[in-house]
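To close the chapter, one final illustration. This time we ask the reader to focus less on the individual chains and more on the assembly as a whole: which components sit near each other, and how the overall shape emerges from the parts.
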Amino acid sequence: MKLRATVWGENVHETTNQIVSEVYPEGMHNQIAKMLKLDGDIETRTATLQQDEHGLSDEVLANTDVLLWWGHAAHGDVDDAIVERVMRRVWQGMGLIVLHSGHFSKIFKRLMGTPCALKWREAGERERIWVVNPSHPIAKGLPEHFELENEEMYGEPFSVPEPLETVFISWYQGGDVFRSGLTYRRGAGNIFYFQPGHETYPTYYDQNVGTVLRNAVRWAHNEEAHANDPSDAPNVPVGEALEPIKERGPRLHKDGEEGLR
Amino acid sequence: MKLRATVWGENVHETTNQIVSEVYPEGMHNQIAKMLKLDGDIETRTATLQQDEHGLSDEVLANTDVLLWWGHAAHGDVDDAIVERVMRRVWQGMGLIVLHSGHFSKIFKRLMGTPCALKWREAGERERIWVVNPSHPIAKGLPEHFELENEEMYGEPFSVPEPLETVFISWYQGGDVFRSGLTYRRGAGNIFYFQPGHETYPTYYDQNVGTVLRNAVRWAHNEEAHANDPSDAPNVPVGEALEPIKERGPRLHKDGEEGLR
Amino acid sequence: MKLRATVWGENVHETTNQIVSEVYPEGMHNQIAKMLKLDGDIETRTATLQQDEHGLSDEVLANTDVLLWWGHAAHGDVDDAIVERVMRRVWQGMGLIVLHSGHFSKIFKRLMGTPCALKWREAGERERIWVVNPSHPIAKGLPEHFELENEEMYGEPFSVPEPLETVFISWYQGGDVFRSGLTYRRGAGNIFYFQPGHETYPTYYDQNVGTVLRNAVRWAHNEEAHANDPSDAPNVPVGEALEPIKERGPRLHKDGEEGLR
Amino acid sequence: MKLRATVWGENVHETTNQIVSEVYPEGMHNQIAKMLKLDGDIETRTATLQQDEHGLSDEVLANTDVLLWWGHAAHGDVDDAIVERVMRRVWQGMGLIVLHSGHFSKIFKRLMGTPCALKWREAGERERIWVVNPSHPIAKGLPEHFELENEEMYGEPFSVPEPLETVFISWYQGGDVFRSGLTYRRGAGNIFYFQPGHETYPTYYDQNVGTVLRNAVRWAHNEEAHANDPSDAPNVPVGEALEPIKERGPRLHKDGEEGLR
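The assembled structure is written out below.
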C-alpha cells in the first residue's frame, strides 16, 4: 500500500506576490506534491489555508500518514481548533514534516513548547547542507553535502528543544550556520524539521531537496497503529491491579472514576 | 545570594476536603516551602490560584529563579494569559519543577507538546523510587532507593517527550512502573518533573522527598542571564553579514524589517 | 530480500550445566534462531564461541545485517581481534542486539564506553516488562505489558549511557526496576539491549519475547549502505575546498597526506 | 575549595617542530593551564606523555576533579593501562575535556565507542564558533559567536554518538561545518569535546577560548561523590530482596556469589 501524504500550503504569496507566482505558478504545495510522487510509493493530496477547515477535515487527517506543512505570511490565520486537531493526530501517529518558515507555525510551536525563533537574512546567498548523520534514513541516497545556490539564511541560535537526532547542518555564505534537519517524536508522531524552502527561490525543484522530502515521508510514517490514544489517562481499579494489593489510607476518587484534568 | 523559589499551590483540596486539610493544615504550598528552606540556601515564597493573577505577577516571576507547581482539581481555572507568562519566563531561564498531578497542568502540557497522560490508581500502595542516574545533581545525597509507604500509582506509558535524562524510576506494589524523575530544557529554562505528592498522603513531609526538591531547585537554577530573548527573531541586514556577501535574487522583505509570524 | 540475522551463542552452559541443557537441548542460539524465523522475513544462521574465529569470519559478518549476541560465562574467552572486527562492522551499519548477560560482553562494553554494570538476583521471580514507548517499532504488536513468570532480576542503576530511546522498563517481584529495552546508535549501526534471557528459564520460548526479537532485527537493520567508512578521516586539500580559500600561516602536513592517529 | 584541574599535554610537537615551539615556548599544556587560572577558582597542574606513568599516577588522578587532554602525534604511545585507569576515574566522576586532535586519542575513542573520525584541512582558514545553546553553562559569558582567524578545519561527518547536548557549531571559510562543542556523560563522568586548538596557531591565547575552557571545567566537575563504583555488579541475595519473595526454579549461582564477567 502506498504512503498517503498531504501537503498543506498556505498559498498566500503565490497569489499575491509576482515573484513567487512566477517561481511556483501552480502553488508551492503542488510543486512539493509533485516531488513526493517521483518514486511512485507516495500518494499525495494537497490542502490549503483557503479551503473549508483549511482542507484538514477529520476525514482528510484520518487518511493521512504524513502531513507536510509550509506557511509563512498567515500563521495567525490558522484556526486554533484545526491546530489542536492536527496536534492530536500527530500524537496518535501521523507524521509531520515542517518546512522552512513553518518554524513559526502554530502547530510547530505547540509541539515543541519553545519559541522556535532564529536569525534570518534574505540575500539569495549560497547554502550548503551537510549530512552529519549519514546513516539516518532521511539521508539515504544523498551526497555528503549539497548546495542551494540561493536560499534565505536561517541562523543559530534556533530555539527548539534538543532534538532526537541532528541530521543536517547548513553552512551559509554570509558566515552563519543552522541545524537544518532535526527529528523529534511527540506521542506516536514522528516530526522532521527541514530548513530550505524560501518562496522566492526554486528550492522545491531541487533534486536533493526532493530526495530529502521523500525520505522524510518514509521515515515519519509510523506503521504501528496506536491502539490507545496517548491522551487517555485510565484509572486502574484496585481490584484490577496486576499484583494483589489491599487498599490502604484515604482516597479522593471512586474506582473507575474519571480523573481530574 | 540565595536562590529564590516560588511555590505555586492550587490550594483547593486543602480547603474543601477534610482528609487533605488534616494532612496539610497550612496548605501543601506552605509545607513544600518549608522543606525548601531546610538547608538555608533557598529563599521561598508561595503563590496560589486564588490570589490576584494567581499570585504570579510579572514582578513575582521576575524575582523567581525557580517555580514549583502543584495543581490537580483546578487546572482548567488557571488563566491562559498567566500560563503564557510563565512559559515565557521559563524560556528566558526560570527553572520549573512540576509536581505529581501537575503533569496535566496547562503549563506542563504547553512546554512538553504532548498529552502528558498516564495510568493511575489511588490505593495507598507502596512506591519505591530508584535512582537510575546516581551522579545526577538531583540525586545528590540520596540513598540508591527510597520508599513512600503510601502513594498514588502513576503508571506507564507516560506520554511525554524522550527526556534529556531519566533520574528516577518508580516501582509500585501493584505491579506498575513509572519514570518518576525526568529532566527537560525549553529555551533557557530547566524543567524537572517529579512524580510523588498525592494530596491525601504526607509525601511532602518525607526527608528524601525534601532532598529531591532542594536538589532540583539548585539544578534548575540557570545562573546564566539570557541576554537575548529566545523568542526574538532578528533580521540580519545584508550589509551586516559576518562574511561579505552581495545580495542576489528577489526578496520579500526590506533590510531590518520585522519578519512574518 | 530477506533480512540476514546471525545469532551468536556462547554455548557453554548448554553443554556443561544439566538444567540449561534440559531447557535448551539444541543450544540457546538455535532456539533464538527458531524464534526469528517465525514470520518468514528473516533468514538466520548461528555462530558459537567454539567455532573457528568464533564463527564470525569476515565473510559471515559481511553477509549479516543484524547480529544477536548471547554470552555469559565466557566473555573473557572472546578474542579481542574478533571483538574489534564486530565493532567495525557495527560502525559500518550492521545492527547489533545484545541479550541479557551480554551486558558484560566485550563488544557491548566497547560500544557503550561505560561499565554496563547492574544489580542481579537469581530467584526465579516474576518480571513484568512495560512498554513505555508504545509507538516504537520494537514494540509493534505487543500488549502494553507482558510477564515472564521466572526471570533473573537485573536492577538499577544500570551504568550505560543515556539511550537514544527507552522502549521497555521492567518491574520485578522483589522490588526492583530495570530499563530493559534501550536503543543506541554507534556509527551507522543500530544497537538494542534487551534484558530477558537467563539460561535456566525458558524465556526464548515466550511468544512476546519472540515478537520483540523479530521487531528488533527489523528496526536494527540499516538499509542505507554506508558509502564512506565512518572511521575514515580524509584530508581535504586546500585547492579542493568547497569555497575558494588561500592557504595562510604555518602547517604540519602536506596536501593529501594521511593525518596522525 | 578550588576545583582541581590537570592539563595533560602530549608535548611532542612543542619540542620537535620549530613553528609549534615558537607559538608555545613553554608547551601547550602550560599555556592551557595558565588560561584556566585566570579567574582564580581553578587550581591546575600539568602532566605529559614523557613523565613516569605519563604523569597520571593513581594519586594524581585521585586528586583531579577535571582532566583536560591534548594529544596529536603520539596517541599510539599512550600506555593502554593508563588509558584504562583514566577511563575508570571518569566513570567514578572525574570530568574530562578533550581538545582538538584529542578526538583520536585512545581515551576518547574508548569512552565514545565510535571511530571519532572527521574531515580536516590545514589552511589557516577562519573558523567562526556559533553558540547554539546559549543557556548552557559552558556558554556563560560568551558572545553569540566568536572567531579564530586561523584554525585547522575539522569537517562533518564527525563519527561520534548523538551528544547529550550540542553547545557549539563551527562555520569554516572553506565551506565546512563542525559540531565543535559536544557534551556526554559516561558513568558519573561529564565529558566535553571542544574543537579548536591546532598546535601551529595561537588558539590557546584567545580570551573566548579561555572562557570556554574555564566554563567547561566548572561544568564537568561532578560535586557528587559517587558512593558506589559504577562498575560494581552486586548480587542481591534472595533473603535481602526489598519485597519478600520465595526462591523458585533452578539457579546457577549461590547467594552473594560473584557474578560472571
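Chain C touches chain D through 71 residues (CB under 8 Å). The helical segments of chain C are 13-16, 18-23, 28-36, 58-62, 80-92, 106-112, 207-220. With these observations in hand, you are ready for the problems at the end of the chapter.
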